[in-house]
Amino acid sequence: MMIRILLLVFGLVEVSLAQVDYATLDCNDTVTIVVNATKLNLNASNLVITKSLSESESTWCRPLMRGGIDPNAVEFQIRPVNGCLPVIKETTVYINYTWTVWVYNGGLAPAKGAPPILRYKSFCLKFSCCFANKYNLTAPYVIPMIEKVTRPTIMKQGKFQFKLGYFDQAYGGQLKNPVNVLVPNRVYLKIWMNVFNPNIVVKLLMCWATPDNNPENMKRYSLIMDGKAVMNQGDPADAVVITKNCKPGDARFNFMSFVWVPVPPPAQMIFVHCMVKICNTLVPGNNCTTNATAPSGRKRRDVIGGNSDVIEDQHEVVSSGPIIFHQPVSPCKVNNGGCQGYCTVVARRPVCSCPSGSSLNRDGYSCDVDELLYNDNVIIYVMIFILFGVVAFLYKKQQK
Question: What are 81-93's pLDDT values in tens digits?
């Protein structure tokens, strides 16, 4: 093992190696340094470890001070695991670690009447530990010393909390319950956690709607199953759209609103329930993609307005509602759609038609009597009158 100690001098203080009675350096995983404090006028609070004082103070590292036996000495430790990283130079023969320990006394306030400038009292000590890059060991037998190295991890105890809410199309603001929606406008939902971690994703497994706050209600409309949008019979292809899933922070989807059949309008309410879980992408073997199957077992409990229900396998069911859906008013119910004759709704618009004997005018609303049909009717009436006259004449002639 080779130990090198270099002393560099800056500013107004001049220090020679002859002034240093002793300086010891113990090179290990934690470097221990003992330096004479009296002749160097060292103050433990002024020791910093950095490549240069011109660097930001946020990058400076403070050594760990220790109480030594000699009151005239300063004993401190440098621990690389605490951020006190050395300058490393490596060759095929050795590896050299160098720390620069600065004795920094700060700026001196200018005297009264002096120029507005500052000078600094500072100097640095460089400590280097040099280790051989390779070791050759010869022995009749070797008993290995196995050390288990553990990596420190940041742990947080507690339970993640999920929230389910309704938002506008841009997800810029949350809508307050109850949410009023006109059918078939879209409903936008987001499920999010109470904390954000870029390595923790929100995994949306399944979602469904019920007419009340009971997620176990057998009357339901499936929205998402196994992380994918459900294609219900008779629905358009975009009836349910998942815009974000298995991503950090939250999951998002939207669906076309609807009404229950047969349910009277005052009772048209919908509660949405979603089964979600969190997934740590750093854990080997975790499947944090949408390719997953939702479990079937759940504990039974009603969920009202965002409360949650813990189920098996660390899954959770979150619910929110109610959404009050309104059927659109038929355009024919307002002033008969503007039609003079009959009104029929086609593609949510009024279409006018006229009764027999009249035709629809070019304005698409008013009716006019069909003249050709009127003339044909007059001829028929005349012929019937003549026929009755002939029958009456023949009857009187037969009586005579």
Answer: 666 778 888 887 7
* pLDDT value for 370: 64
Q: What is the pLDDT of residue 147?
A: 52
For the domain made up of 331-369, the CATH class stated in words is mainly beta
Instruction: For 111-126, write each residue's pLDDT tens digit.
Output: 555 555 555 556 777 8
- Where in the chain are all domains bearing CATH 2.60.40.3210? 2-132
Helix, strand, or coil here: 190? strand
Query: Rounded to an integer, what distance in angstroms lies between the CA atom of residue 274 and that of residue 250?
Result: 13
Residue 198 has pLDDT above 50, yes or no: yes
Q: Which helix (H) or strand (E) holds 386?
A: helix 371-399
Selected from 2.60.40.10, 2.60.40.4100, 3.90.1150.10, 1.10.1040.10, the CATH number assigned to the domain covering 162-326 reads 2.60.40.4100
**Separation CA 38–CA 71 (nearest Å):** 9
Distance CA 245, CA 205 (A): 9
pTM assigned to the model:
0.41
CA distance 208 to 225: 9
Work out the end-to-end distance of the chain between its first and last CA atoms, rounded to an integer number of angstroms: 158
Strands 23-26 and 179-182: unpaired
Q: Flag whether pLDDT at 371 surpasses 70.
A: no
Percent of the chain with pLDDT over 90: 2
Beta strands 94-107 and 87-90: pairing type? antiparallel
CATH superfamily, domain 2-132, is: Zona pellucida, ZP-N domain (2.60.40.3210)
Ranking 63-72, 134-143, 224-233 by mean pLDDT, the lowest is: 134-143
**d(C-alpha 293, C-alpha 270), whole Å:** 25
Tokens of residue 149, six digits: 């190295």
Helices (H) and strands (E) in the chain — how many of each?
A: 1, 26
72's CB contacts (< 8 A; 6+ apart) are 36, 37, 38
Instruction: Please write the tens of the pLDDT for every residue from 7-40.
Output: 333 333 333 333 445 677 777 777 777 777 666 6
- List where CATH 2.10.25.10 sits in the chain: 331-369
Q: Which residues are CB-contacts of 118 (< 8 A; sequence separation ≥ 6)?
A: 107, 108, 109, 110
